[in-house]
């Protein structure tokens, strides 16, 4: 008769697992939660705002991101500014440490940090090469609004109020866990993203919108 051997972890591995769990808990639950809106979401709210949400081309977001892979876990501040022709995403540690600035204008993508300035054909390839992980920036442009990226298959499950609850697209699974309100629009405040063994948490604490054309 064979007996199952209890699983054991190297001390360093145990510390890493504990650190990863604390990291996710910190970003998910305690990362500067803003006051919640004093109105509730109602059935029909999502449908009534979808046209405005789709047309939205300009915003600034401040928040947090946590990334967990089997080999590493990181958390960072996130500042994202988007206009119709340009985007700039800054990812940095406390007090700006280890800042990475990703910029694109439809023709060129660059990433700048303490090691220099680098270019690549796509933001995903650039982030993977220089940061060790990447997020699907082109699709994320839509996902942070609660919308599927166009022209690719997707599945969406809605909650009781008709808002997106779970979205699957391009191999990613997104869970919309909390919503906030800015300039009369309901927008995601917290979502989790999974792709294989990569797990990401986005906490979008502050939305500033400008829906007018520049």
TrEMBL record:
Q: List the GO biological process terms.
A: lipoprotein localization to outer membrane; protein transport
Q: Does the keyword Chaperone apply?
A: yes
Q: Which InterPro entries match?
A: LolA/LolB/LppX, OM_lipoprot_LolB
Keyword annotations for this protein, in alphabetical order, are: Cell outer membrane, Chaperone, Lipoprotein, Membrane, Palmitate, Protein transport, Signal, Transport
State the superkingdom: Bacteria
Major localisation: membrane
Q: Where found in the cell?
A: Cell outer membrane
Topology with respect to the bilayer: Lipid-anchor
Q: Family assignment?
A: Belongs to the LolB family.
Which function does this protein serve?
Answer: Plays a critical role in the incorporation of lipoproteins in the outer membrane after they are released by the LolA protein.
Q: What is this protein called?
A: Outer-membrane lipoprotein LolB
């Amino acid at each position: 008769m064979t007996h199952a051997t209890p699983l054991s972890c190297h001390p360093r591995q145990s510390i890493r697992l504990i650190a990863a769990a604390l990291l996710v808990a910190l970003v998910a639950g305690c990362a500067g939660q803003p006051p919640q809106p004093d109105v509730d979401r109602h059935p029909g709210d999502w449908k009534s705002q979808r046209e405005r949400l789709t047309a939205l081309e300009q915003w600034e977001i401040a928040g947090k991101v946590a990334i967990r892979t089997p080999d590493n876990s990181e958390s960072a501040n996130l500042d994202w500014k988007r206009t119709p022709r340009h985007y700039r995403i800054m990812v940095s540690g406390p007090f700006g440490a280890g800042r990475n600035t990703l910029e694109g204008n439809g023709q060129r993508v660059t990433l700048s940090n303490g090691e220099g300035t680098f270019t690549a054909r796509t933001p995903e390839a650039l982030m993977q090469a220089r940061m060790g992980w990447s997020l699907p920036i082109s699709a994320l442009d839509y996902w942070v609004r609660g919308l599927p990226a166009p022209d690719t298959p997707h599945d969406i499950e809605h909650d009781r109020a008709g808002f997106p609850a779970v979205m699957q697209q391009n191999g990613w699974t997104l869970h919309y866990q909390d919503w906030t309100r800015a300039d009369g629009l309901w927008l995601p405040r917290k979502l989790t993203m999974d792709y294989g063994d990569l797990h990401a948490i986005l906490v979008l604490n502050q939305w500033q919108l400008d829906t007018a054309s520049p």
